[in-house]
Design brief:
The complex is a heterotrimer of chains A (318), B (340) and C (592). By secondary structure, chain A is mainly alpha-helical. Chain A is built from 11 helices and no strands. Helix content of chain A is 65%, strand content 0%. The longest helix of chain A has 37 residues, at 99-135. Mean pLDDT of chain A is 79; it is low at 1-23 and 313-318. Chain B has a two-stranded antiparallel ribbon with strand order 1-2. In chain B, a hairpin with a 4-residue loop joins β1 and β2 (86-87). Mean pLDDT of chain C is 89; it is low at 21-29. Chain C has helices at residues 2-24, 57-63, 123-136, 144-151, 165-174, 193-200, 206-211, 219-222, 285-294, 362-370, 374-381, 411-420, 425-429, 442-456, 471-479, 498-505, 510-515, 520-531, 535-552; strands at 37-42, 72-74, 82-84, 104-108, 175-178, 181-185, 246-252, 257-262, 276-281, 299-300, 316-322, 326-332, 386-388, 431-438, 462-469, 485-491, 555-561, 563-568, 571-572, 590-591. Chain C is 32% helix and 18% strand. The termini of chain C are far apart. Chain C is of the alpha+beta class. Classes of the chains: A mainly alpha (318), B mainly alpha (340), C alpha+beta (592). Chains in contact: A-B, A-C, B-C. At the B-C interface, α2, α3, β2, α5 and α7 of B face α1, α9 and α15 of C.
Chain lengths: 318, 340, 592
């Protein structure tokens, strides 16, 4: 969806082992998490962002009588950005949108967009991929072809077509990104389910007379959580970047909406600075850019950490 | 093996039909009047909307329109792309070589860097080189491409005119488009060498530096991490330990045994990357003013140039399926366990 | 040990990269780059280089007077003063080349005139060019500009889209070849005709066109060439052979580059100073600006919002306050069409929408006109480079009334005005409006937001939504009358007030039809002004029309923005005329 696919399309071919039944448990998980300094950093970053998102109305209160808190307030529509000053700690971008306000509320937008897209993709992927993987045979073949079709088309272009047809707005962007992301989750889950399906304890459960649904929910499902966690956390970051790319093409959130990608997009003509001072408008890029980069960094570190933790082969090396 | 290839090739038209059908289906969400309006540019002649609808058959059922389009495709007529101001076939022919050249250079660079750094990272896990490369690669995935591209442009063109945008300088362009220059492949660097014009080769190369850096940074970052984790996994394998126990020198162990097997997931990723590069270098092409297929595809999608998008969909589907096929064939060579 | 090796490798690579960069670098001297080639970097795509097809400023800007010449031309920067170009004299009442009743115009063709391939220009070529321009009549094209005055109709087709041969016959009779002169008899006296000729009578070589497979000028074949589909045969509309100081060397759609080459056989005198002119499409503003800085572009297009980015660049000259003959306005739809139209909200006066005929009440319209912070729009959306409007006719054009009255923004008066509407009912219930603009237009977006802000600040029950649509969708919906309140503009086709009052005020005008506005007095006045040659009477009429625009206010006029041009200071000879499209007259330019 960016200019190249992300890691996780490869994951199904890597062997992701999960915690074997006797050593599972949240406590064990957290203990291992804490021992890895990089993953602690990742966790800390994410927690920081969560807090900013939750406390947004306190950190950057909208002006009284302001109807939509996601619209960044501006005192005028003057076209030139202005540097940080009292009242505007991060400065104001083109058309005087307050960068501090935009970055703070943009955190909420970032979470909203990524969580929604991933939730929808996982849900759809689980149903479709699960069905295909569990049933196998003809259904599986059809499934593979359908996902082939979706994956054969560059995600960005597909998203552009969808948004162009449906119209502008962040909700349309959510739909477009979900439509582009679900096949990968579906494939991932199908792969997992295929491998679990043959396992002994599933055979045993079936021999005991358990219904398909029960087997699915009790045995198959829990084992798919881990790859979803890993891929999902890596994807949280890439969805936000994809939304920024859509803003570049003029199809993301509207101008003045509290969205990091949109703020960076507003900075585009100003990144090269003014005649004589190439970094005159540094603040238009640095603040939202830093926000996005840290957000991505956090989720990437966390995703890496999840993967390192859940691979029993690496346990001995920790 | 041939049976396997044949079977995969049979699937090609299915995927192609699937993707193009998807595009057509999406555009049906627009009313005929809206789709007709795409053919008109001026308020003055809007009264002709009805005539336009009839002329292009925009009110006929969707499957009829699709069927018409499909029939034309088989005949070789992909329609006219108003965004490109030429027929779709001409558009693909003129834009693809640029993207191909850009992609091949980027692919080569990121493959070398990715594999090398990824191996290094895995072998020296948790030491400074590992942390450095992981940081650099994470930073690479953290910023949108267009930011990186504009910053590079500012630094290496704005402050000093070393690497200008565009594909060629004016002088070189005039030479290339004149009768003295024969275009063999459409790849400027290659053609320049084939024509014996070394200065054009350097000119084209110079214009490729920044776009290649922009395009490959992001993907190289991804590749480094995949290579690293793949290497980490193979290095734990029993056969590696055996090789070490046998007394083989470490570099040989890494190169001959571990890396070969670690390349398997990389090959998967590489084929996806190439397909992605070929069809999706939208942002890079826009910033550096390169007349490539990604820019055309994005513009066509934005302005709902339906023949353009459908043609683009078709083309990219073909590329991706062929790429996957190539990857699967490569597996057979790399991993003796896989046999078709 | 392996580590040391890797470190050395990294160091080596770093040194290589830096030396490569330095080695390939050229120092940026500020002496003239490419001294005999002019390079223009613009945004947007060239649509066509064929005079009968093109109808956008970019395409016309490349070819008009540069590749194809017209019968007469503007004298310097004036729009009312002409000099001969392909004709030997400018027709006037005095020299008898305009008939007494101002209906017949005679253009004697200069026997020295030559096409770029050396062949002489005949009156037959002129007639052919004019007929072709009118008969091709493509959807959304410029043919109506000549069709209207010459035949009395503005289209060659009937309601079902069939070609009407009688239009051809009328045009054929109206344009006569007498010796080496072309005599044009208009359907009705039309005062602005000379002005139209200055911009729209581009002459191409008939022989060369026919050789390319184009229309041969005969009645039997004309229907086939009417309203061509673009993809039918693009070669036909790539460009033609003209008489101008430049010829089209190549149009590379792949790289979006148009190259003009000097016409070595230019008939009017010395050949052009520039050997080549290159037009390149570069969409990204940052890239364009850097190209200007480095001298890789001599002209670039810059929008008002980015203007501060090019001020103060060394070696760059900015010419501002260029008069443009453009009117920007906010249109109110008196009768919004479309059942269930989402832009009407609830469709009723209940605080959640507006009824379809909301703007048919003149009190509502006047209240809106008083609720707009024009000063803020002027300051923020146009950087003060706009004259606030008072009617359709732009400043600088004949018929503009500098002292014409218009509404001003005053919060208290606005509130008072709203309180009076429908006896206070609107004030009590409130409403929800949707304002629309076309996506990408920054000035209109800015104006929409200011409009929203100003109206919402009057009464918490007043809600304004701002939405944008892609250009072609926008036009389609506007034309269908589905937009309740929206921004549009109009640029002059020719420098006569009729070109403005007709679309903005006549009941058959392009805008007014969509707005469902009709005023018989207006229609009468406009038609009288079209027929009168007496400037004093015309001015009277246009002043009266401005008053009606003020009292009826179906359209809120924002103003007449001025333009600015950005070029490298080594470009010499550039001058401006408000009727120039794009850059203007390239013949005069050189680089030193």
């Amino acid at each position: 969806m960016n200019e190249a696919p992300t890691v996780p399309q490869v994951l199904p071919k890597l062997r992701i082992s999960r915690l074997t039944p006797e050593r599972s448990g949240v406590g064990e998980f957290l203990r291992r998490l804490r021992r890895n300094p990089l993953s602690v950093t990742g966790l800390a970053i994410i927690v920081f962002f969560v807090m900013v998102a939750v406390l947004a109305p306190v950190l950057a209160p909208p002006p009284r009588g302001w109807r939509d808190p996601y619209k960044i307030p501006n005192e005028s529509f003057a076209p030139d950005p202005r540097p940080p000053r009292p009242g505007h700690p991060f400065g104001t971008t083109s058309e005087q949108y307050d960068l501090y306000y935009g970055v703070v509320w943009g955190t909420r937008t970032a979470f909203r967009v990524s969580l929604t897209v991933i939730a929808i993709s996982v849900a759809v992927g689980l149903v479709i991929g699960g069905f295909a993987g569990y049933r196998g045979g003809g259904a599986d073949e059809v499934f593979m072809r359908v996902t082939d079709v979706f994956l054969a088309f560059p995600g960005l272009i597909l998203a552009v077509v969808i948004v162009a047809v449906l119209g502008k707005g962040l909700d349309k962007v959510l739909i477009a990104l979900s439509l582009v992301s679900w096949p990968t989750y579906a494939r991932l889950l199908r792969g997992e389910i295929l491998s679990v399906r043959q396992r002994d304890f599933v055979e045993a459960a079936r021999a005991l007379g358990a219904s398909d649904v029960r087997i699915f929910v009790r045995h198959v499902l829990p084992n798919t959580i881990y790859p979803v966690l890993i891929y999902g956390s890596l994807d949280m970051a890439s969805v936000v970047i994809s939304a920024a790319a859509l803003s570049f093409l003029g199809l993301g959130a509207e101008v003045g909406y509290a969205d990091w990608g949109q703020l960076i997009n507003l900075a585009r003509p100003w990144i090269i600075g003014a005649p004589g001072n190439a970094f005159q408008y540094w603040y238009t890029l640095v603040y939202p850019g830093l926000a996005i980069s840290l957000f991505v960094l956090g989720w990437n570190l966390l995703g890496d950490a999840f993967r390192d933790i859940m691979d029993p082969k690496l346990r001995g090396q920790a | 093996m041939t049976a396997f290839i044949a079977r995969r090739l049979v699937l090609l038209p299915i995927v192609v039909i699937g993707t193009t059908l998807l595009i057509f289906a999406l555009t049906q969400l627009l009313s005929p009047a809206m789709r007709a309006s795409l053919f008109v540019q001026d308020p003055n002649q809007m009264r002709d909307l009805e005539a336009i609808i009839r002329k292009y058959g925009l009110d006929r059922p969707f499957y009829v329109q699709y069927w018409e389009w499909l029939k034309n495709v088989v005949r070789g007529d992909l329609g006219y792309s108003f965004v490109a101001r030429q027929t779709v076939a001409e558009a693909i022919r003129s834009f693809f070589p640029t993207t191909l050249e850009l992609s091949l250079f980027s692919f080569g660079l990121l493959l070398m860097v990715g594999i090398w750094l990824g191996t290094l990272s895995a072998v020296h896990k948790d030491r400074w080189i590992d942390h450095l490369s992981r940081t650099v690669s994470i930073v690479g995935t953290g910023l949108p491409t267009f930011v990186w591209g504009l910053v590079l442009l500012l630094l290496f063109y704005g402050m000093h005119p070393w690497f200008p945008p565009g594909r060629l300088s004016l002088e070189a362009y005039l030479y290339v488009t004149s009768d003295r220059f024969r275009s063999y492949t459409g790849l400027l660097t290659l053609d320049a060498l084939l024509n014996g014009q070394l200065w054009i080769f350097w000119d084209a190369l110079r214009h490729l530096v920044l776009p290649v850096l922009t395009l490959s940074y992001f993907t190289a970052a991804v590749l480094v991490r995949v290579m690293r984790s793949a290497m980490l996994e193979t290095l734990r394998q029993d056969y590696v330990r055996t090789a070490r126990a046998k007394g083989l020198p470490e570099p040989v162990v890494i190169r001959r045994h571990a890396r070969r097997n670690a390349l398997i997931p990389v090959i998967t990723l590489a084929s996806l990357i190439l397909a992605g590069l070929l069809t999706g270098a939208v942002i890079t092409e826009t910033i550096y003013d390169l007349p490539g297929i990604g820019r055309w595809g994005a513009q066509a999608a934005q302005q709902l140039d339906i023949p353009g998008v459908a043609g683009f969909a078709l083309f990219s589907a073909v590329l991706v399926v062929l790429g996957n096929l190539a990857a699967d064939i490569l597996y057979a060579f790399v991993d003796p366990r896989i046999r078709y | 040990m392996v580590e040391m090796q890797s470190f050395r490798v990294i160091l080596l690579v770093g040194v290589l990269v830096v030396s490569l960069a330095l080695g390939l670098g050229i120092s940026s001297a500020q002496q003239v780059k490419n001294p005999d080639t002019l390079i223009i970097a613009h945004s947007g795509d060239v649509d066509s280089l064929d005079p009968a097809w093109q109808y956008d400023t970019l395409s016309s800007g490349i070819t008009l007077w540069n590749v194809y010449e017209t019968l007469i031309f503007f004298r310097g920067g004036s729009v009312g003063d002409y000099v001969p170009m392909l004709a030997t004299q400018v027709p006037s009442l005095r020299n008898g080349l305009i008939s007494r009743d101002a209906r017949t115009f005679t253009f004697p063709i200069n026997p020295q005139a030559r096409f770029s391939d050396g062949t002489p220009v005949t009156a037959e070529d002129v007639k052919y060019s004019l007929m072709r321009f009118m008969m091709i009549d493509r959807d959304g094209g410029p043919s109506w500009v000549l069709l209207q005055p010459i035949t009395g109709e503005d289209t060659t087709r009937d309601k079902d889209g069939k070609f009407r041969m009688e239009i051809f016959d009328r045009a054929d009779r109206a344009i006569q070849v007498r010796g080496n002169s072309v005599v044009i008899t208009l359907a009705r006296p039309y005062a602005p005709f000379l002005n139209i000729m200055a911009s729209w009578s581009m002459v191409i070589s008939k022989r060369a066109a026919i050789a390319k497979g184009d229309w041969d000028g005969r009645r039997e074949t004309v229907a086939r060439f009417n309203n061509p589909q673009r993809n039918a045969d693009t070669k036909l509309f790539e460009g033609a052979v003209g008489t101008g100081p430049f010829v089209i060397e190549r149009w590379d759609r792949g790289t979006k580059t148009v190259i003009l080459r000097r016409n070595e056989r230019y008939w009017r005198g010395q050949r052009a100073a520039l050997q080549r002119v290159v037009f390149r499409t570069v969409e990204e503003f940052a890239t364009r600006r850097l190209m200007l800085q480095q001298g890789d572009a001599d002209f670039i297009t810059v929008g008002r919002p980015e203007q501060s980015q090019v001020e103060g660049l060394p070696g760059v000259r900015i010419v501002d306050d260029l008069s443009q003959f453009v009117t920007q306005a906010l249109f109110l739809n008196l009768n919004v069409k479309g059942a269930g139209n989402p832009y009407l909200g609830s469709g009723r006066l209940d605080g959640n929408g507006i009824p379809a005929n909301f703007f048919s009440d003149v009190q509502v319209r006047r209240a809106i006109a008083q609720s707009i912070d024009y000063g803020a729009i002027r300051r923020d959306c146009f950087r003060n480079k706009i004259t606030l409007g008072n009617g359709p006719i732009p400043r600088g054009m004949f018929g503009y009334n500098e002292r014409g009255r218009w509404y001003t923004y005053d919060r208290d008066r606005a509130i008072a005005a709203w309180r009076e509407v429908q006896g206070g009912r609107v004030w009590e219930t409130g409403f929800k409006l949707t304002v629309l603009y076309n996506t990408g237009n920054a000035a209109r977006r800015c104006a929409s937001e200011i409009l929203k802000r100003s109206i919402e600040s009057l009464n918490p029950k007043f809600q304004v939504e701002v939405t944008s649509l892609a250009w072609s969708t926008y036009l389609a919906q506007e034309n269908e009358g589905r937009l309740p309140i929206y921004f549009l503009g109009w640029a002059a086709d020719y420098a006569d007030p009729d070109n403005f009052v007709y679309p903005f005020m006549h009941s058959n005008g392009t805008f007014t039809k969509a707005q469902s506005y009709s005023n018989p007095e207006v229609d009468r006045l406009i038609e009288e002004a079209q027929r009168t040659a007496d400037p004093a009477r015309r001015r009277q009429i246009y002043f009266r029309l401005q008053e009606i625009a003020y009292t009826d206010v179906p359209t809120v006029y924002l103003g007449y923005p001025t333009g600015f041009v950005v070029m490298r200071s080594w470009v010499r000879g550039w001058y401006w005329n408000p009727m120039f499209f794009g850059l203007g007259y390239l013949y005069a330019l050189s680089k030193q």
